Structures are given as C-alpha cells and as structure tokens.
Amino acid sequence: MRKNHLSPELEGEILSNFRIPSGEYTLVPYGSGHINDTLLAGNGKGDRYIFQRINNNIFQDVPALMGNILRVTEFLQDSVRKNGGDPRRESLTVIRTVDNAPYYQDREGGYWRAYLFVEDTVCRDRAETAEEFAQSGEAFGRFQKLLADFPADSLAETIPDFHNTPKRFEAFLDAIQKDPLGRKKEVEREIEFLLARREDMSRLTEALRKGELPLRVTHNDTKLNNVLLDRETLRGICVIDLDTVMPGLSVNDFGDSIRFGASTAPEDEQDLSKVEMSLSLFRAYAEGFLRGCDGRLTENEYACLPLGAKTMTMECGMRFLTDYLLGDTYFKTHRPGQNLDRCRTQLKLVADMEGKWAEMERIISECRG
Ligand SMILES: Nc1ncnc2c1ncn2[C@@H]1O[C@H](COP(=O)(O)OP(=O)(O)O)[C@@H](O)[C@H]1O
Ligand SMILES: [Mg+2]
C-alpha cells in the first residue's frame, strides 16, 4: 500500500539525507498527483521543499530517470539565466543528497528526491479558461525553446518505444489476430478505421528516421497539471513532473496536449455527438505554444504540428482498442466497455481533425504571424 504519512523515523532519515538548511521540518502530503507520493516540507523559517517518493513500480530505472532530470534541469536553469529569467522559479531545482546524489534510497527501499518548492503558484487539474490552456501551451513551448540546444540523443529512453506508433500498430495487429476474448466482431468498424490509417501511423517516425524532423527533449505528460501558474498573473511559469522526459518529437508533445485538452468531452464520453476537437481551444493552445517556442522549431516541425495531434490521438485510440481486445489489462477500467468508449472518443477526434485539417493548418500559420 502506498502511503503519504511516514513514520517519524523515516521522516528523520529522509530529511537528514538531503542538503537543506537545518531546522525543524514538518512533512505534509501535497498536491493531487497520482503517480508519486508528494510531500511539502517546511521549517517555518521560509525554507520549503517538495519531497517525492518516486513510484518505482511505474519507473523501474530510477537512476536513469534521475540522471535525465538532473541534466535537463541544470540545462534549463542555464538557459533561463541566459534569458534573464529566475532559474529557481522557471525550472525545477533538484536538491542533492548529502552524498551529492540526485536521489536517496531509504531503508525500506523507497526512492526519494527533493526539489525547491516554487512559491506563489497554483496548479490546475482542469483548465478554468481557454487562457489557462494557452498558458500551459506557452510553458511547454518555452520548454522546447530553452532545451533546443540540448543533445536529446544523450538522454536515457526510460520507457522504450513510448511513441513508436508503428510498433504500437504491430501490437494492435497482433491483438486482432489473437482476439482472445472474441471481442473483435463487436469492433469491426473501429478496426477498419485504424487499418485505413496505417500509412499515417508511420509518417512522423519516418520523418525522424530520414532526418526531416529533429530529435528533441520531450516531456511526454504535457497536461495542465504539470505546469505551475503564477498565483497572481496566472501565467504558466514552470514545467514540472519530468519523470517521462525522454528523446522524442516536439510535435508529439504538442499533439498530446491537443488530444487531451482541446476535446470538448471527457476521454470516456459515451455520447459521441458531444466529442469534438475544438478549433478555438486548438488555437488557444497553438498560440501559447508557438509564442513559447519563439521561433526555435524547424519549418518542418511547425508544418507537422497538426499531424502530431492526429498521430497522438490515433495512437491513443489504438492503444485503448488493443487493450479492449486483450481484456483490459493495461488501462484501469471502472466499468465494462470503458476502454472501447475511450477508443471511440479518440477515433471521433481523429475524424474531426481530418475534417478540420485546413483550418488547423491555417491557425498554425496565423499564429506564426
Ligand atoms: N517544485 C514544486 N513546487 C511547487 N509545487 C510542486 C512542485 N513539484 C510538484 N508540485 C505540486 O505537486 C503536484 C504533484 O507533483 P508531480 O511531480 O506532478 O507528481 P505526479 O507525478 O504524481 O503527478 C503537482 O501537481 C504540483 O501541485
Ligand atoms: Mg503530475
């Protein structure tokens, strides 16, 4: 069982192993993250830190993961400084252990890390306004700008083939062929929809292979709740949750935000008439993202932003369908057929994007000015 409340011994052990100013710290559960156990530590004298027990069921190679995070945050801080910003506020800051390591393993085997607490921010699970969505876009765009010169191929691929869409397509074909639960006959239309887009599935990975798109540092979990907004101005100031930072494609990071954030309905909506890719939300995010990128993407990357949205949405729909065919073993479900519903919303979004393609392209070129 994962728990947020620690024994006093464990608290003492963890606090004493990181390089933080002395004082009587209290540790309290913080935020609404679902992956790691997050705690806020304060000593009442203004020194505050985020401590996280890293979920090593999900992330099995913690040393590689923390190696990525350490290098990326150090690079971000240098870039922020060069741009005249505040590196302790516009980037996460990893606190080292007394042994100078970026994480500490406790006597129970738990892996811990600590960050400076970024003060005076808010973090939203859902956008309250289109402007907040745009602000997350700006923060993720700035993330691309600040890391544009980072050697992305030197990062560890902590989740191999995460957005290898053709490989996921092969897994889908395999699931259709095996059809262990006899569910294939219920989903002929969905299967056909995806099979008809086989070529599209590999367009981005092919462009990368041919050198037409550059390998970038990607975040891979570009949700609004992974951006801290300034409490006063509500501007997106700091990208957090760097566990899935890996080499990848900038257009996939953009695309996944659109897939999730520009949809007019929840991911498992059963009434498909409610599911659309909102062009006004697409525009809001694209404006923010492109402002944040500040011209640092290549022409081809700008041109492939709509394809990033479509690819991420196809891939996600295909993964839900694969899981449905195989008996719902990967994505947690709360009711029968939920993965199929999720697949259907994604395919509806793909079809909707195809219908709005020219407008998506026009919006991107307008946002570029
Ligand atoms: N350095 C930080 N400063 C301020 N708040 C933070 C910081 N790091 C994390 N948080 C808060 O903790 C929450 C969970 O952190 P996150 O790294 O996203 O964990 P998870 O992987 O579980 O989503 C965030 O949504 C945010 O509210
Ligand atoms: Mg998070």
Write the topology of this structure.
Elements: H1 8-16, E1 26-29, E2 37-42, E3 48-54, H2 62-82, H3 87-90, E4 94-95, E5 104-105, E6 111-116, E7 121-122, H4 130-146, H5 165-178, H6 188-195, H7 198-201, H8 203-209, E8 216-218, E9 227-230, E10 236-239, E11 246-248, H9 250-261, H10 279-293, H11 299-303, H12 305-325, H13 338-355, H14 357-368
Antiparallel strand pairs: 1-2, 2-3, 3-6, 4-6, 5-6, 7-9, 8-11, 9-10
Helix pairs in contact: 4-9, 4-10, 5-12, 9-10, 9-12, 10-14, 12-13
This protein binds adenosine-5'-diphosphate and magnesium ion.
Question: Treating each run of at least 4 consecutive H or I residues as one helix, how many helices?
Answer: 14
Q: Which structural class do you get from the secondary structure elements?
A: alpha+beta
CATH class of the largest domain: Alpha Beta
Cα-atom radius of gyration: 21 Å
CA distance, first residue to last residue: 52 Å
Total domains: 2
Strand content: 5-15%
Please estimate the helix content: 40-55%
Report the average pLDDT across residues: 96
